[in-house]
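Journal club side-thread
Mid-discussion, someone asked how the predicted structure for our own chain would compare to the paper's figures. Pasting it here so we can look after the session.
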Amino acid sequence: QVQVVESGGGLVEAGGSLRLSCTASGLTLTFDAYTVGWSRQAPGQEREGVSCSRRSGGSIAYAASGKGRFTISKDSTKNALYLQMNSLKPEDTAVYFCAAGGGDLDARSRGQGTQVTVGS
């Protein structure tokens, strides 16, 4: 069974930085065989994609909201995904989720999320 666990959230002042981490276990293929990414959900709003790294050396994509401020990276030897977030804004406040999909997965596997709160 695939398990995805996020960490690294917290409270930060506007303009600050956070680095989110995610580890995936129970995968049967190499980490690079999966499309992995981050999404977020603010209170009262729908979940939105933040960034993804497509499988097998595919492209990286960012939502407009984080472009130029967020950087996604991964360590395939550790089945780990990261999201470096700089110049944080109060509107970045949300629960951030990591997910893995594609490969041999019938459905996307998403973690429980990590709370990011940006004070003004």
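Post-session note: The CA atoms of residues 74 and 81 lie 4 Å apart.
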